[in-house]
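Human:
Care to share another protein and its fold?

Assistant:
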Amino acid sequence: MSASNRSPENEPPEHRSTEHGSTERGPSGRGSRGQTADPTPWDPRLRALTLGLVSTVTLIAFEAMAVITVLPKVAEDLSGLSLYGWTTSGFFLGLLVGVVIAGAESDRVGAARPLTAGLVLFGAGLAVAALAPNMWILVAGRVLQGLGGGAVPAILYATIGRAYPEPQRPRMFAVTATAWVLPGLIGPATAALVAEHAGWRWVFGGLIPLVAVAGTGTVRALRGVPAPTTVDVAPTAPRLIAALRVSVGAGLVLAGLTGRSAPGLALIAVGSVLAYQPLRALLPAGTLRARPGIAAAVAARGLLTFAFFGTDTFVPLAITAARHEPTIVASAAVTAVTVTWTTGSWTQARLAGRVPGRVLIGTGLLAVSAGTAGFALVLVDAVALAVPIACWAVTGLGMGLAYSPIASLVLAETPPERHGTASSAVTLSDNLGTALGTGLGGAAVAASEAANGTPDLGLATVFGLTVIVAALGALVVRRAPSRIFPAADSTPAAS
């Protein structure tokens, strides 16, 4: 649905725009009819909301950085390398369900209630993982974390779409990307040290108090963001059933791939049939065929996350298993990609008013492809470890360029009363891509370990596949809308 179909009378005055989507303004930064300039994320009117969203993203970032760093140690301790990929796939399959529920509910009742429920489930999942006696229970805890964590991206995108003027959205996405910097700088090394000296269980358990601290301020701020006055979403129950079918179907496909047997082929067939129709219903029409328009943008998001997270999950394993380096060395790669992702995100925010969104996305996807190809050199002992880590940093830069503009593009082409549902579609594609990428990678690594006693061949397969998928995404996004986002004013991003 194009931006021209929006109903301006349903938007707050500061969000109303011309038919091209930009607020009319004169040289001074005020509208040509005397309106004040769009509030920046740090304007007093939005500051509490911005701080709340940033604190919640920071919490999720600490969890992500910590868990991916210690996963090799967890798998070793619980003798669960065969389920290594499932620790990430399970999280994102749970996230897939959580984001659909939270997106629909945010359109129906506002953002505060679904975020509260999500954070409670997220904390419960951390507790289960911290106490897990085996790898299966750990995976179950990760699924529960994902179910609750799904509220965060759905609420984030919907709130940015409703509360922030369109010219400020790229900047707000860059602000939330910056929330990953501190966790990226200290999270991996801290997690490695905690796992080494106190045990990996404290990595999960130590995050539980942060859930309450970060969530309280965010929920309070979200209560000031009204729910849409016009509700145009399907009832939640059918969407929940559809999301469950997609999640279970994807899980069956991954289980079949992991089994590598005749019964496994049956699981793949059953899972595909179970997920296909509801997936079509939950995504914009034509997404699975990359139809020109926002469908192509949503499809590109899934290919992007498949390529990046399908590699990212196995970066620490490649460094610790293939190069036999300690976890603290692997944490350097995790930190590097986080910093460059943030750099790329701020770069796209600065270019958003001059470069079409699909150009930024395509450039980012090509960088992900090239950077992943370079990181594959980690499997060559003769290459200094600094080289693949530097290449992995290039991949982070590509993610920063491509990740947020997809959400901005979809929000700009969707009427405000459907921002929650549109956010769910973007995040659904995001999570499904991640789950399939990490699941296929996990199957390849498990097969390599079983056949050769090392994961090296499986890791090479993972890296080759994700390079191809990222390049495919760069082709698909050429079918997305060619839209240049309205330029933000020159007000500093933070005060």
Summary: Confidence is low (pLDDT under 50) at residues 1-35, 489-495.
